[in-house]
Specification:
Blueprint lengths: L1 H26 L4 H4 L8 H26 L3 H27 L21 H7 L19 H9 L2 H27 L5 H27 L2
Helix pairs in contact: 1-4, 3-4, 3-6, 3-7, 6-7, 7-8
């Protein structure tokens, strides 16, 4: 569709700008990420950066699908905002791994970092008993849509597509909040904590917005 062809170049440019800007700042030695202790390849920070990239990439995919499946301006505007924001953030997460001189693919299964004990705050004091929500290494990331759900979204149109998108994206956002809260309980890296805190705040607000939109379409 014409709208998608116009949107993707902007998204790609935004990701490239974020990555290049991060790399230049690192080379100058001015990023707060560089000032903090460099995370290891099996750290919570590295696991979060890898897994949240995948999570955000699916968010972009869902958003671009629904833009082609509805003419509702509110849904299309929301979807475009999600696509550009999550593409930019995925670029930032990619850039962190470059800055930390770590591979984009980890040596452990997805979600392994979330199964380890918390080290920060009340969770580290014993209130959460380590593992996040009973996850196991290799489990699907929380909130990810299944291939069947994505196929159903592609096949829907109009209000049905809007309902499916909002339902999937509410679950997707809740999963992202869970992952962000998990890294907040396992990292003292200032940049990671700032990023994760912003994810929690923004996506909880967006969940409330989408719940209202979904109610209007029930």
């Amino acid at each position: 569709m014409a709208g998608t062809r116009r949107a993707w170049p902007l998204i790609v440019v935004a990701v490239v700008v974020v990555v290049v800007t991060g790399a230049l700042a690192f080379s100058a030695g001015r990023l707060s990420v560089a000032a903090a202790q460099t995370p290891s390849g099996t750290s919570a920070e590295a696991g979060f950066a890898r897994d949240m990239q995948v999570h955000h990439q699916q968010g972009v995919e869902l958003a671009m699908i629904v833009r082609d499946r509805t003419d509702d301006e509110a849904t299309r505007t929301l979807a475009y905002d999600f696509a550009t924001t999550q593409a930019q953030q995925a670029g930032q997460l990619f850039g962190w791994l470059v800055q930390w001189r770590l591979p984009q693919a980890g040596s452990e299964p997805d979600m392994t970092w979330m199964t380890r004990p918390a080290t920060v705050g009340e969770q580290a004091a014993g209130h959460a008993h380590g593992a996040a929500g009973g996850h196991r290494p290799g489990d699907p990331m929380p909130g990810l849509a299944t291939p069947a759900q994505i196929t159903q979204l592609r096949a829907a149109g109009g209000v049905e597509a809007e309902r499916r998108f909002l339902t999937l994206m509410i679950a997707h956002h809740r999963g992202a909040v869970e992952m962000a809260q998990a890294v907040l309980a396992r990292s003292e890296n200032p940049s990671v904590r700032s990023f994760a805190g912003a994810v929690v705040t923004s996506q909880e607000s967006e969940i409330a917005l989408m719940e209202g939109m979904l109610a209007e379409r029930s």
